[in-house]
Amino acid sequence: MELFSDEYFMKEALKEAQKAFDKGEVPVGAVIVSNNTIIAKGHNLTETLNDVTAHAEMQVITSASEYLGSKFLNDCTLYVSLEPCVMCAGAITWARFGRIVIGAKDDKKGFSKINQEIIPKTVELKYGILENECSEILSRFFKKLR
Prior knowledge:
Elements: H1 6-22, E1 29-34, E2 37-43, H2 46-49, H3 56-68, E3 76-82, H4 86-95, E4 99-104, H5 111-114, E5 124-127, H6 131-145
Parallel strand pairs: 3-4, 4-5
Antiparallel strand pairs: 1-2, 1-3
Helix pairs in contact: 1-6
C-alpha cells in the first residue's frame, strides 16, 4: 500500500472505527488530512458522551478547525468509514471540504439516500475505498448486539 494513498488514510479511519467498536459505539471512524498529514482523528462517541451529535465526522471537524484555527477546511480531505448522515453532511458542507473519501455506503441513513444535493458539486466525492473492511466491522458490531 502506497504511503499517502486513499487506502492508507482509510486504514487510519478504520483504526478509529475499531476504537469505537471496543467502546460499544457504532464503529465509524474518521480522519482529516491536510498536506498528506493527519490533523484530526476521531470516532463515534454518542453513547460515551450521551450526545446524538457526537458522530465521528463532528468530532474530527471540531478538532481540525481548532488545529488550523479556521472553521473552513477547503484544503483538507475527510476520510470516513461510513457514508455521513444528513446532519454530518450539513457540517461537512459548512466546513467547505474540498474532498471527501467514503468507505461504505449507508443505504438507510446516508446523505445520498436522503438528500444527495446537500454536498455541493464542487466537492470531490469518492466512494468505496476499503468498502469491504468498512462494512465488515459494522456487520460484526450489529451481530454482536443481537
